[in-house]
Write a structure and sequence with these properties.
It is a single chain. By secondary structure, the chain is α/β, with parallel strands linked by helices. 43% of the residues lie in helices and 20% in strands. It is built from seven helices and nine strands. The strands form three sheets. It has a five-stranded mixed β-sheet with strand order 4-3-5-6-7. A two-stranded antiparallel sheet has the order 1-2. It has a two-stranded antiparallel sheet with strand order 8-9. The chain is globular. The N terminus is likely disordered.
Length: 207
């Protein structure tokens, strides 16, 4: 199977170029989810005041934007990871002429506001996520929604493909992060059990 790695310039580098284009796309999506998951972990331990969510925007094999959910850190409710990753790309575009993103991968299924925001980015053709919103709803971290992103994308004819990235080890890490997070759906205040999260991640890493 294709084995992706990242070089220092955020480009996915491939050890084996003999695989099909479909295999390469699947491997790229998994690599992007890996980077987004690392951002979520960084958010938990470096900040801990927002729900730990990471997102990366990519153009082909290149990551052109990345960030974490920053609602409380920046004191503005709409600073979700998807929005911040696009803002990061726009800053890079102004400074260095970064290519427009064609894919965005986020650790958690985008909320309705983020779905609508991503629909305003003309270049964006694919939006992937690791865990469905139901994983947050089951833990009482967000309010229940009446429809999934798939149902809403079809109803509103959102201009991008929506898909879940099936990568059990990364999805398990994402679930562990949620298990040690507490969020009041009314005030949106977040608390993270850092000691418990650290121990759980170490156990996963050594299993």
């Amino acid at each position: 199977m294709l084995e992706p790695i990242f070089n220092s310039y955020n480009k996915v580098v491939w050890h084996d170029l003999t695989e099909t284009a479909e295999d390469r796309q699947v491997a790229r999506d998994r690599a992007l989810l890996f980077r987004a998951t690392n951002l979520a972990i960084e958010s938990a331990f470096s900040h801990g005041i927002d729900l730990p969510v990471g997102a990366v925007a990519a153009s082909g094999d290149w990551i052109v934007g990345r960030y974490i959910a920053s609602d409380h850190r920046l004191n503005y409710r709409q600073m979700h990871a998807e929005y911040m990753a696009i803002q990061d790309w726009q800053m890079s575009n102004m400074a260095f002429g970064a290519e427009a993103p064609t894919s965005l991968v986020v650790t958690i299924e985008p909320c309705n506001n983020c779905q609508d925001f991503l629909a305003t980015i003309p270049s964006l053709k694919r939006v992937g996520f690791g865990l469905p919103r139901s994983a947050l709803e089951e833990r009482g971290l967000v309010k229940p929604h009446r429809e999934s992103i798939y149902e809403r994308a079809q109803r509103l004819h959102l201009p991008y493909q929506v898909f879940q990235i099936e990568e059990p080890p990364l999805q398990q890490v994402g679930e562990v992060i949620l298990d040690f997070s507490r969020r009041n759906p009314q005030t949106e205040e977040v608390e993270i059990d850092l000691q418990g999260l650290h121990e759980a991640l170490v156990e996963l890493n050594t299993a």
